[in-house]
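User: I'm curious whether this sequence folds into something compact or stays loose and floppy. Could you predict its structure so I can see for myself?
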Amino acid sequence: MTEQESIAVIKEMISRTRTNFKEQSFFYLLWGWLVVASLCTEALLYNQNIEYHWIVWPIMSVIGGVWSSLYGRRMGKRAGYNTHMDRVMMFVWVGMIVYLVLVLLNTPKYGFTTAFMLLGGIYGLGTFISGGILKFKPLIYGGVASFLLVLIAAIYPDVVSSFNRAMLFLAASIVFSYLIPGYMLKNSK
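Assistant: Here's the prediction. I'll summarize afterward.
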């Protein structure tokens, strides 16, 4: 391989990584909007005194899981390869999902205020770690914003003492940690 061919290979690898980097925005935007829509829907159902207001979450999870899987599989086939970053990100988010499910399963036992703190923290942790891996500061800042919301709720528990307030805080956490960075990632160069 000549020097020119080596440089061409390196340039192609950098180009692929940049494309893959921008494509990650799909997942932040998909899950961000699904969670915000689910929070709003659950709050509406809760305020209508519908007993199974929580049913929104398993439905949303299935829709989001299938959609993410199909998109991720298509992305992988189109690229024809997986980078080390892809593998690390997969493990980060699979671990986050397992923890999220454990929190949700225990919400009736510990209550929605505690669940809010744990969910807001895990949303922030996922984007904070991802931002560090991707070297994308808006994700890091979004994670920090979620941490700050959890800290505010810990210091001033009355802020999330009602179900509706807890839903609003979770929605704010998602806007700061998923949606704003997701759009910034999508529009990055």
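Summary: The radius of gyration is 19 Å. The chain is about 85% helix and 0% strand.
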